[in-house]
Design goal:
Blueprint: H1 2-11, E1 41-60, E2 63-65, E3 72-75, E4 79-94, E5 100-109, E6 123-134, E7 138-143, H2 149-153, E8 195-199, E9 206-215, H3 227-233, E10 243-244, E11 254-267, E12 270-282, E13 285-286, E14 295-297, E15 300-310, E16 313-323, E17 352-354, E18 363-374, E19 377-388, E20 399-413, E21 416-429, E22 446-459
Parallel strand pairs: 10-13
Antiparallel strand pairs: 1-4, 1-22, 2-3, 4-5, 5-6, 6-7, 7-8, 8-9, 9-11, 11-12, 12-15, 14-17, 15-16, 16-18, 18-19, 19-20, 20-21, 21-22
Length: 460
C-alpha cells in the first residue's frame, strides 16, 4: 500500500492555489489559467514579522498546592509581556519555458520551554517548502510548510483580527491547559510534517488539492530517534515506526492522505467561498501482549466550511469530525497506566485509541466568526466548540472545550498595526486533574481563562 502511495505522489509532480494563512502566501502565486507568463528570472524575498504584547490574564485555578499537606506552593501573576518574531526568506523564479518555481523558509524565535536569559533568543528553522508548476497544468508543493491540502485550501476559519484570537499569539500567556485546540486545520504545529501536494488550476470557480506524507515527521526527520529509542527507550521519537510493543508509539500517524475541493466566486457585490475535504492515515500497530486490546485507529476526519463577504463584512464557519483525537490519550511503557498530560499541544491531530472501558469519543469541532473592515480598522470575533476523547487512557469522560475571542486591529501605517484582544475559554474533562494531569481525580476537572492583550505588530 505504501509503495503504491509513494508512486501516486511522485506521479502528481506535473506542477496550487494560495493558502488562507499569511505563511501560505510566501509559497508562490496561485495556479490560474488566466495568468500570463512573466519575464524569466529570479526574485528574492525576505519577509518577516515581530509582535509585542502586554497581557492581563485571569486563570482558574492559577495556584498550586501540595498534594499531601494542602499548603500553597505556587501562585501566578496576572500581568506579563511577551514578544515573538518570524522570518520568511525565499525566492520565486520563472524559466524561459514558463515554468514557475520557488522556495521559502520559516525561521522563528524559540519561545516556551527554554531557560531564562539568552536561551529564548535562539533561532531555528520551523518549516521549509518549495513549489513548481504552470498556470495551465497546476502546481506541486513539497516540504514541511503549507504544502498539505487541508492547510492550504480550508475555508471558513475566521482569525483575521487582532493576533488571530484563539488561533493567534495571545494564548501564549497561559500557564495551564490551552483551550484553543480546535483549529487543527490551520495549525502549523499539526501541519508541519513533510509531504508532497498537487493543486489544480481553477476551473469555473473550482479547484482541487491532494497531498501525501509517509508519516508525521518533520523536514529534518526525527533527530531524537536512535536504535536505543527505537528498541524501547522512546519509540514515539521515531517517525518511521509502524509496529511496536510500546504503546507510547501509537500516537504516531503513518501514510497521511489529504484531499480538498474548493469553490470561489462572486455574485454581484457578494463573494462566496466553500470547501470540503478529508484526512485519512494508517496507524502504528500495537504488538504488546499486556495491552493487546488497546489499539490506535488511523485518522479518518472530514471537514467543511464556507465564507460570505459583502460590503466589508466577512462571515464564516467551519466544522470537522471523525476518528481522531486532539492531543493524545496517555500511556506509559507497555501497560495502560495513564501518564500526566496537564497541558496539551494546541492544534494537534492524532490517532484515537480504542480503550476497553475508556473513552472512545470521536472528534467533533465547529467554529463561527465574522470580521468587518472599515478603512484601516478591522473588527472581528469567533466562537469555537470542541469535543474529543479523554486524554487519559483510564478516563471514561470526554474532553470538552470552548472559547470566545473579540478583537480590533488598527492598521496605522504600512507594516505597522496596533491591536486589542479579549479571549475567554474553558476546558473540561471528568475524572482528570487538569492541573496535575492525574487520572481518577475529582479536583480541577475544569480550567477557565480570560486574557486581555494589547499589542503591536511590525511586518515587512
Amino acid at each position: 500500500m505504501r509503495k503504491l502511495m509513494y508512486g501516486t505522489a511522485a506521479a502528481l509532480a506535473l506542477a496550487v492555489a494560495e493558502g488562507a494563512s499569511p505563511a501560505a502566501a510566501q509559497a508562490g502565486t496561485e495556479a490560474s489559467a488566466g495568468q500570463g507568463t512573466p519575464t524569466p528570472g529570479l526574485t528574492a524575498r525576505f519577509n518577516g514579522r515581530y509582535r509585542f504584547f502586554v497581557g492581563f490574564v485571569d486563570e482558574s485555578p492559577d495556584t498550586a498546592f501540595d498534594a499531601g499537606t494542602g499548603a500553597k506552593e505556587q501562585g501566578a501573576n496576572g500581568f506579563d509581556m511577551i514578544d515573538y518574531a518570524r522570518l520568511f526568506p525565499g525566492f520565486d523564479g520563472v524559466a524561459a519555458n514558463g515554468l514557475r518555481y520557488g522556495a521559502s523558509l520559516e525561521i522563528r524565535m524559540r519561545s516556551g520551554g527554554e531557560p531564562p536569559g539568552d536561551g529564548r533568543s535562539g533561532l531555528f528553522y520551523r518549516r521549509a517548502w518549495g513549489y513548481l508548476g504552470t498556470p495551465n497544468l497546476g502546481q506541486i508543493r513539497v516540504g514541511s510548510g503549507p504544502t498539505g491540502a487541508v492547510e492550504t485550501m480550508h475555508v471558513g476559519h475566521i482569525a483575521g483580527f487582532g493576533s488571530g484570537g484563539w488561533d493567534g499569539d495571545a494564548p501564549s500567556f497561559l500557564i495551564g491547559a490551552n483551550t484553543a485546540n480546535a483549529f487543527w486545520y490551520a495549525s502549523s504545529g499539526r501541519n508541519n510534517y513533510t509531504k508532497i501536494g498537487y493543486y489544480s488550476p481553477q476551473f469555473f470557480g473550482f479547484d482541487l488539492g491532494v497531498s501525501y506524507g509517509p508519516n508525521d515527521g518533520e523536514f529534518g526527520g526525527d533527530g531524537a530517534c536512535s536504535f536505543a529509542n527505537f528498541a524501547g527507550a522512546a519509540p514515539q521519537n521515531c517517525d518511521r515506526v509502524d509496529q511496536s510493543i510500546d504503546s507510547r508509539a501509537l500516537v504516531r500517524a503513518q501514510d497521511i492522505f489529504e484531499a480538498m475541493l474548493r469553490y470561489r466566486g462572486t455574485f454581484g457585490p457578494l463573494g462566496v467561498a466553500i470547501s470540503g475535504g478529508y484526512v485519512g492515515s494508517g496507524r502504528v500497530d500495537n504488538l504488546s501482549p499486556t495491552v493487546g486490546a488497546v489499539q490506535a485507529q488511523g485518522l479518518s476526519v472530514g471537514l467543511g466550511g464556507a465564507t460570505v463577504s459583502w460590503a466589508g463584512f466577512t462571515v464564516g464557519g467551519i466544522i470537522s469530525g471523525g476518528r481522531a483525537n486532539l492531543g493524545s490519550q496517555g500511556f506509559t511503557g507497555n501497560d495502560a497506566t495513564a501518564t500526566s498530560l496537564a497541558g496539551f499541544s494546541a492544534g494537534s491531530l492524532t490517532p484515537r485509541f480504542d480503550v476497553p472501558g475508556g473513552d472512545n469519543t470521536n472528534l467533533f469541532t465547529w467554529s463561527l466568526g465574522a470580521t468587518y473592515t472599515a478603512g484601516p480598522y478591522v473588527f472581528g470575533g469567533h466562537y469555537f466548540n470542541q469535543d474529543s476523547a479523554g486524554h487519559q487512557a483510564a478516563n471514561t469522560g470526554k474532553r470538552e472545550s470552548e472559547g470566545i475571542a473579540l478583537g480590533i486591529t488598527w492598521n496605522m501605517a504600512p507594516g505597522l498595526a496596533l491591536f486589542l484582544e479579549y479571549l475567554w475559554g474553558e476546558v473540561k474533562e471528568a475524572n482528570v486533574d487538569l492541573v496535575s494531569g492525574a487520572a481518577g481525580s475529582g479536583a480541577n476537572n475544569k480550567v477557565d481563562a480570560q486574557i486581555v492583550s494589547l499589542g503591536f505588530s511590525f511586518q515587512w
